[in-house]
Amino acid sequence: MKKVKGLLIMLLISLSLFGMTSCGDTPITYEQITPQEAKNIMDTETDYIIIDARTTEEFAQGHIENAILIPEYEIAERAEKELQDKNQLILVYCRSGRRSKIASDELVKLGYTNVKEFGGIIDWPYDIVK
Fold first, then answer.
1. pLDDT tens digits for 12-43?
2. Which pTM does this prediction carry?
3. Which residues are within 8 A (CB) of 48 and not within 5 positions of it... i.e. 6 or more apart?
4. Ordered domains of the chain (ranges, CATH)
5. Which one, of 43, 35, 49, 98, lies nearest residue 78 by Cα?
């Protein structure tokens, strides 16, 4: 009986140290896509949101049509109010790709499951709204 009790204690200690996740668990992350893939989604899909993660000033200088401005530094406080469906397709861009990666990572941490980051507007070869 003492051996069984000792083994159970060791098992509990091991589980608490190493977690109880299975080897098959994969962390949820955002998907990196090209501007061309993002444009194809915009042309063929209907249920998506485009997030511009730049500043108000940058957005005013020109942005992708139908994009919603949520600067990268405001994602954590605004996302759950403005992006109700955590399973909806969300396309994210910024100027060069750095802030869109930060914003996409934050969205995933908040529980959004279908986030695609496509870099910066400087690499966007299509029309923009001014």
1. 444 343 333 334 566 789 999 999 999 999 99
2. 0.80
3. 41, 42, 88, 89, 90, 91
4. 23-123 (3.40.250.10)
5. 49
